[in-house]
Amino acid sequence: MLSEELAPVRPLRAAPEIADFESFVLGAEPRLRGALIAIYGSDRGREATAESLAYAWEHWERVAGLDNPIGYLFRVAQSRSRLRKVPIIFVPPPPSAERLVEPGLPDALRALSASQRLAVVLVHAYGWRVREVAELTGVKPTTVQNHLERGLRRLRQKLGVHDHA
After folding, report:
1. What is the tens place of the pLDDT at every residue in 112-163?
2. Per-residue pLDDT reduced to its tens digit, 98-107
3. How far apart are the C-alpha atoms of 6 and 60, rounded to whole Å?
4. Domain positions in the chain
């Protein structure tokens, strides 16, 4: 009787399907995580990455067939992250750490729009090409370039930088 009351169990996935998903995650996770951290900060970005990859696993048959699965999962992460209104937190470096980062950078990044912050961080911190950011976000490369230029201009103003070396 007890077995009749239990919900049907989803069959286990075949080994090739698991291997395909693992291979996808190895390539996609760092890129997806970097993009989401650029928008939401470290903690929320990592949570959004995990949520989007969990979604990918649950819907792997569909996600695997997409032309741009990373871009799709980026949108999934954005949708699921909108439900929580949590402030963006960029952790400043500890005072004792060697000065590798401008101390005002976390606040300056926080002041950018999400689109500007994403473009600046992915292109200048992670070394992405403008075209790659455009593919991820589903916008034209010229739009990403505009966000990048405006974001850099705003960062320079906030940080008091008049020359870019």
Report:
1. 998 999 999 999 988 899 999 999 888 999 999 999 999 999 999 998 887 6
2. 556 778 888 8
3. 25
4. 14-89, 103-165
The whole model's pTM is what? 0.66
Residue with tokens 């693992």: 22
Q: Which residue has the tokens 């937190």?
A: 89
In the numeric block, the tokens 């926080």 are attached to: 110
Q: Which contacts (CB < 8 Å, 24+ apart) does range 4-8 have?
A: none
What is the C-alpha to C-alpha distance for residues 144 and 148, in angstroms, rounded to an integer?
Answer: 6
Residues facing 41 on adjacent strands: 89
Fold that domain 103-165 belongs to in CATH: Arc Repressor Mutant, subunit A (1.10.10)
Q: State the Cα–Cα distance between residues 151 and 112, nearest whole angstrom.
A: 6
